[in-house]
Amino acid sequence: MTAIVETKNLTRYYGEHLALNHLNLQIPAGAVYGFIGPNGAGKTTTMRILTTLLRPSGGEAWVAGLSVTHQRAEVRRAVGFMPDSFGFYNNMTAAEYLDFFAAAYHVPPARRPALIDDLLALVDLGHKRDSDVMSLSRGMKQRLSLARTLIHDPQLLILDEPASGLDPRARVELRELLRELRRLGKTIMISSHILTELAEMCTHIGIIERGTLLASGDVATIMRSLRPHRTFVAHVISDVQAAAEVATAAEHVLAVRVLNDDGPPRIEVDIDGDDHAVSALLTRLVSHQVEIVHFAAQTSNLEEIFLKVTEGVVG
Ligand SMILES: Nc1ncnc2c1ncn2[C@@H]1O[C@H](COP(=O)(O)OP(=O)(O)OP(=O)(O)O)[C@@H](O)[C@H]1O
Ligand SMILES: [Mg+2]
Question: What CATH number has the domain spanning 3-224?
Fold first, then answer.
């Protein structure tokens, strides 16, 4: 895959304050890239530079091969940006709002009505066509804002915390919408500090903290690099201590933990072998009369990855 976004030593100061510190980022075309970091990490700063709204203090960035400092107009045509706040628009209907931005992007007047209808339908706001934008709910404003980013049919969408403040249903709908956009061939960069929000829809993630990129790549690779061994969980209905002892003595087993929380009795086994070692562990448990009702690899989620990567960096 070719990179649609690339930054080289991207740096940004606000006065004395270093907000972005030599950021080297790559987003492959077609990816849904989750840009994750705590408040003040530099997410919005990065996104504003990539959309040419802010100039870097040092380094360079390219969008679709175009320089954000030397080819600003071309970059703007390639990117749709959804900022983290909707802004204020006086006496404007949803259709007029989109028409306003269509004009700003030089969409010919004759093409606008059909385009606006299509976009309103895409974000499920057809029934709000003639409603004042300021009367829309937060979730509807988010969707209208997303429709706006699509008005010039950009290759790349940069969405700054699109899910913040949305109720669970609206979040699911947003996720569906992003999936649809991906099917239409868009690359999507999306920021959040709520990791579980991104967990299901990202193909790649970047973790940023204090202006420094701590990890970046496809989700599976990052998980592997953070967790060189695998962890398996067995739910046990026979004696759980005995099960732990049997597991501890198995080959390739690094550690065994007995979990006695509110959940079902179970053991967690860290293992550094291949699938044969895992299978041998299970065989050993069963042949030692350990009664197992569930045995599965533990899938670590983004929340865990994030805590792991930022370990020791956050004071
Ligand atoms: N206009 C500005 N003037 C001065 N400092 C700024 C400005 N904008 C951002 N900063 C500082 O730069 C750093 C990065 O801010 P940025 O808004 O990029 O973070 P963020 O990751 O988007 O945070 P959040 O999750 O809160 O949106 C912060 O320390 C912030 O205080
Ligand atoms: Mg921000």
Answer: 3.40.50.300
Residue 38 CA: which ligand 1 atom is closest? 25
Q: What digits encode the pLDDT tens for the residues 104-116?
A: 999 999 999 999 9
Q: Please state the pTM of the whole predicted model.
A: 0.81
User: Which band of pLDDT confidence, cut at 50, 70 and 90, is reported for residue 312?
Assistant: very low
Q: Whose CA is nearest to atom 29 of ligand 1?
A: 40
- The 10s digit of each residue's pLDDT in 217-250 is 888 787 777 666 888 999 999 999 999 999 999 9
Candidates 44, 81, 209: which one to mutate for ligand 1, based on the most atoms within 8 Å of Cβ? 44
* CB of 37 shorter than 6 A to ligand 1: yes
Helix (H, G, I), strand (E, B) or coil at 282: helix
Sheet strands (E) in the chain: 3-14, 17-23, 26-28, 32-36, 58-63, 66-67, 79-82, 156-159, 187-192, 204-209, 212-218, 230-236, 253-259, 266-271, 292-297
Note the ligand closest to the C-alpha atom of 13.
1
Is residue 156's pLDDT more than 80? Answer: yes
| Residue of 13, 32, 29, 31 lying closest to 21 (CA atoms) | 13
Structure tokens at 175: 């996720």
Residue 165 confidence (pLDDT): 79
Residue 19: CB within 6 Å of ligand 1? yes
Q: Which two structure tokens, joined as six digits, stand for 249? A: 């003595």
Domain extent listing, the chain: 3-224, 228-299
42 lines ligand 1 (CB under 6 A): yes
Ligand 2 center from residue 5 Cα (angstroms) = 19
pLDDT at 278: 93
User: What fold, for 228-299?
Assistant: Alpha-Beta Plaits (3.30.70)
Report the nearest-CA residue for atom 1 of ligand 1: 14
